[in-house]
Amino acid sequence: MATVSTEDAFYEQLSARVLEIAREHSQQLIASRTATPKQTVSRYVAGGRPSPWFLHSLVRGFAINPSWLLTGEGTKLLTDVTADTSRMAGNLLDLVKAMGAVTERKLGSLVGKQHLMVLRELNDALISLESIQERVSQESEETFRKIIGDLAQALNEGQLDRMESLIRTGSQISRLSFNRELQREFKALVASATSILRDFETSIPLFREALFEHIATGKLVDAVVIERVNRFALTLRVMLRLREARNVCDAFLALLRDKAEHIPTYHHLVSLAAYLHVECGDLPEALPKLTQSRSLANEKNRAFSSGFNLAHALFYTGSMRFHELGSLELREDMAVQIPNAFALWTANKEHLESVLKRNERSPNLAHPLLHAYARVTFDAISGKGAKALTDADALTAEKIEKDPSHTLRMFSVHIIKAQAARLAGNAKVAKEETKLAEDVLRSGEPDVMPVLLFRAMHWRNVLLLFEQPTGAKEKRMAECARSAVKIHLERGYGMLRELADKIGE
């Protein structure tokens, strides 16, 4: 009778565990994360003996517990190991807190009584409690540091599923730690991770805490912190908190003045601040920032944010023409998206046709909402007004409802429908949609506002549709639009010059 050697048995069991991993992840993903050819992965999954490097890469790429992979002992994932640790530690913390609560109640019951001996004993117990808490914090520190390191790695590598697991585990362990520096670092990493995971309601307050706690320490703001400030401001921008995003950028730029020009991401922050100043009506403040960041940015940043933000500002000054966009150094996705905004404002058939063709050539780069809005506007000026309005209605369920700030995003839908109806000659629908847009705008949070493009389109719709307003609401809308256009023209927003005669300029 043939016997199975110990080595054969080891590899048989090892192959079974590799197969188990392959059932949870595609072979393509395994090949990508382990830098192994797909056919080699297929051979290992089919029972071939894996190389030591492949096993090492599995451990690193999928956070596999090496003890489980090689011997079958313990939990499969390293995060499960730390999760078990955190559960035990969490229980210990609960015990410590319970001890503290009991002690406090006993002290309270002794107020005014002459039980000095008992009071001394309870005082000793409190000192002991503090000692226990300090010891627990020290013993959990190594685990907490490991989780922070793993979360930073998962963040850099874009491992979304691993981020979520590490956040849960780290949140348990963080309850045990009294190390403020580690707590601050964990908060900052969780803020960045939840922003990527589009959990903005969690990320925004965490960013606020972590970044402003860093300022309170008096430590220098380095490249890592600047990157987090950038991410925080971008998160606020996504949530349409444009004024707060501008203020955050300005606050950190004031701290960094003349101290961070050697850090590439600093110029990204300057450029982002300029973009936000343009959005908030501060074009004169923005232009010097754009000049500065453009002149000092590295090649990557010139093609990424610097070129985009410069085109954004020049568009609002009225000095940039649609056909001149090609002269800017723009990253490919930016070169697809920026013309969409231009074409929506000009409502020029040639411009719209150009961006639609380009979007269809590069569907993965085109912004889905801007593309849809361009299609609606193009149909409206091509004699397909009814289709344009039907398509605009479909946007609500298909795209807007999935947006984290979808209530205010409805403002843009009403703006596009109003413009489409106006261009198609349907004044009744255009006025109805403009009034709905005004309702959404006024019902939103005071700290939240739509992007300038759609605010400007709304002012134009109001001034063109309600030249002789009737009723309090129409008069208020017309007065607000006239005032906004007048202020922006005075601040250099030349793209609004076409409306000068509507405000008596």
Keywords, separated by commas or semicolons:
mainly alpha, 0% strand, single chain, 23 helices, globular, 75% helix, 505 residues, 434 Repressor (Amino-terminal Domain)
Characterization of the model:
This protein has 23 helices and no strands. It has 505 residues and is mainly alpha-helical. Among the domains are: 6-76, lambda repressor-like DNA-binding domains (434 Repressor (Amino-terminal Domain), Orthogonal Bundle), CATH 1.10.260.40; 347-503. It is globular, with a radius of gyration of 30 Å. 38% of the residues are buried. The model has no long low-confidence stretch (mean pLDDT 80).
Spatial gap, N to C terminus: 103 Å
Query: What are the secondary-structure elements, in order, as H or E?
Result: HHHHHHHHHHHHHHHHHHHHHHH
Helix content: over 70%
Mean pLDDT: 80
Low-pLDDT stretches are none
Number of strands: 0
| Biggest sheet statistics | none
Number of separate helices:
23
Q: Compute the gyration radius: what is it?
A: 30 Å
Structural class per helix/strand content? mainly alpha
Shape: globular
Strand coverage percent:
under 5%
